[in-house]
Amino acid sequence: MAAIELEGLTKDYGEVLANDGVTFSVERGEIFGYLGPNGAGKTTTIRTLLGLLAPTAGTARVLGRDVTDEDALLEAKRQLGYLPDAPAFDETATGREVLELHAAIKGDERSEALLELFEPPLDRPVRDYSHGNVRKLGLVTTFMHDPELVILDEPTSGLDPLIQHRFAEFLREERERGVTVFFSSHVLSEVRRLCDRVGIIRNGRLVTVEPVESLLDRSGKVVRLRAAASISREALAIDGVHDLETSVVRTGGDSDGEGSEITECTFTFTGDVNALLAHLREYRLLDLSIEEAPLEGVFMRFYGGEESTDAESKPGLTERPGGG
Ligand SMILES: Nc1ncnc2c1ncn2[C@@H]1O[C@H](COP(=O)(O)OP(=O)(O)OP(=O)(O)O)[C@@H](O)[C@H]1O
């Protein structure tokens, strides 16, 4: 049994179809990133999983329980930790009082270790907390009862780099213990660092679910080269070359135009690197670097271009034709 199962999940707000036939599963013990820009529909899915919104159509199951069955969902929630995008703690209570309340409701096996890790202030009223401190307190309340599954809405927003780092380490350790983590994000570096798989949502529709590794494979390499020759764009427009930028600079020489020419180019390459190297052998290279492309490139292939809402016309990570 998967930890989360969505089948055709649809939420129609009238003016906006916030989730449109969303189908995927999150397996037990994995860290699953739910990625999309503002307004894509992430929070809508999450609030449905928590039983806070009723789906217009489709089904959602959390730890095997149908989220529209209140009793069953209550049962599941004993094993669930949830960090909302804006935790609504009692503003007049201190952090310590908030934790005592949560402990009384759902248990408190782990708060001591969590307090050491995330260090939220405890003796001030929550209304005096910064955004980051509210989230630190939220992380403690999310994990304090040792849940099997955690659902986190943009968990690292507002956290300073030290706490983000601790959080990342902590999530990996949780996964080792068999905990399932589902979190939404629009921070690609975080998804890349933490997730086993990622689901990408656009305009309410899921456009892909795949391992982070395969997303990275598709994102290809960034190639930068300098060659002691004038190379035309056409000569470099081989299979797998995208976003080609070239410039030819003339060095030395006199006013008659004598001197040498150097071509500098940058492109993303999604083909066979050996074939590329064989192709480049005919030029005298002064410099060559091949680095892993940032995940942003893949993301832009989903979100760049026209504002289509038709998922069929954007079936997934289609490669652009060679030649940039
Ligand atoms: N209660 C509501 N009534 C009407 N429309 C809503 C409601 N809640 C959300 N929406 C709309 O549904 C769409 C999806 O919103 P949602 O909050 O799920 O997106 P999100 O991916 O979580 O965005 P963000 O990253 O900004 O939090 C948006 O167009 C939003 O304006």
Structural class of the helices, strands and pairings? alpha/beta
Instruction: Please give the number of β-strands.
Output: 14
Strand content: 25-35%
Q: Quick check: average pLDDT?
A: 87
CATH architecture of the largest domain: 3-Layer(aba) Sandwich
Q: How many strands, which pairing sense, and closed or not: the largest β-sheet?
A: 6 strands, mixed
Low-confidence stretches: 305-324
Hetero groups bound? adenosine-5'-triphosphate
**Number of self-contained structural domains:** 2
- In quaternary terms, these chains amount to single chain
Q: Rough shape?
A: elongated
Distance between the termini: 44 Å
Run of helices and strands: EEEHEEHEHHHEHEHEEHEHEEHEH
- What is the CA-atom radius of gyration, in angstroms? 25 Å
CATH class of the largest domain equals Alpha Beta
Task: Assign a percent range to the helix content.
Answer: 25-40%
- Could you tell me the CATH topology label of the largest domain: Rossmann fold
How would you portray this structure in words?
The protein is an alpha/beta fold. The chain folds into two domains: 4-216, P-loop containing nucleotide triphosphate hydrolases (Rossmann fold); 221-292, Alpha-Beta Plaits. 31% of the residues lie in helices and 30% in strands. It contains eleven helices and 14 strands. The protein has helices spanning 42-49, 70-77, 95-106, 111-118, 131-143, 161-176, 188-194, 212-219, 233-236, 273-280, 295-303, and strands spanning 4-12, 17-26, 31-35, 57-62, 65-66, 80-83, 149-153, 180-185, 197-202, 205-211, 221-227, 241-251, 260-269, 285-292. It has a six-stranded mixed β-sheet with strand order 6-7-8-3-9-10, sandwiched between helices. Helix 6 links the parallel strand 7 and strand 8. Helix 4 (111-118) runs antiparallel to helix 5 (131-143). The longest helix has 16 residues, at 161-176. It is elongated and about 85 Å long. It starts with a strand and ends in a 21-residue tail after the last helix. The model is unreliable at 305-324 (pLDDT under 50). The chain binds adenosine-5'-triphosphate. Adenosine-5'-triphosphate (ATP) is lined by residues 13, 16, 18, 36, 38-44, 85, 186. Adenosine-5'-triphosphate binds at residues 13, 16, 18, 36, 38-44, 85, 186. It comes from Haloterrigena salina JCM 13891. This is ABC transporter. One of its GO terms (molecular function) is ATP hydrolysis activity.
